[in-house]
Specification:
The chain is α/β, with parallel strands linked by helices. It has one domain: TIM Barrel (Alpha-Beta Barrel), CATH 3.20.20.70. It has 6 helices and 6 strands. A 6-stranded parallel sheet has the order 1-2-3-4-5-6, covered by helices on one side. The longest helix is centred in the middle third of the chain and has 10 residues. The N and C termini lie far apart (about 35 Å). One of its GO terms (biological process) is L-tryptophan biosynthetic process. This is N-(5'-phosphoribosyl)anthranilate isomerase. Pfam families: PRAI.
Length: about 140
């Protein structure tokens, strides 16, 4: 099943506009190295503007359990998107503590995609297939 997620929101105006579209999820980035990074307070405000029928996703990169707990206890987020090299054990720990939370695993669209899908299959709810980092950096370096 394919789903449509818009991500990287930083304003209520944009969240409200996107919420009018036929999308499945709206995402917010909680990663300090991102130019679209949002604090927990900002995510709480932005995610509160998302209607109930649209999943509210927090994108994190190699978080610790304290970060996950902080996000889930202080915001209306119902989906965590793991965008790093998180272990199966870590994912199971999240699932055990927060059984109602959906977990999406971001994977690079590279030569290891099938191997990585097989590795995480059964432990996450969804996959997002993303551009490999090396391609992204090559592209940015040629702008």
């Amino acid at each position: 099943m394919m789903k449509l997620k818009f991500c990287g929101f930083t304003s209520i105006k944009d969240v409200t506009a996107a919420s009018q579209l036929p999308i499945d999820a709206i995402g917010f980035i909680h990663y300090e190295k991102s130019k679209r990074h949002q604090t927990i307070t900002q995510i709480k405000k932005l995610a509160s503007a998302v209607p109930d029928h649209i999943d509210k996703v927090c994108v994190v990169v190699n978080p610790d359990l304290t970060t996950i707990e902080h996000v889930l206890s202080n915001t209306p987020i119902n989906t965590i998107q793991l965008h790093g090299t998180e272990s199966i054990d870590f994912i199971q720990e999240i699932k055990k503590k927060y059984s109602s939370i959906k977990i999406t695993k971001a994977l690079a669209a590279d030569e290891n995609i099938i191997q990585n899908i097989n590795k995480y299959k059964g432990f996450v709810d969804l996959f997002i297939i993303d551009t490999p980092l090396s391609v992204v950096w090559w592209y940015r370096s040629n702008i």
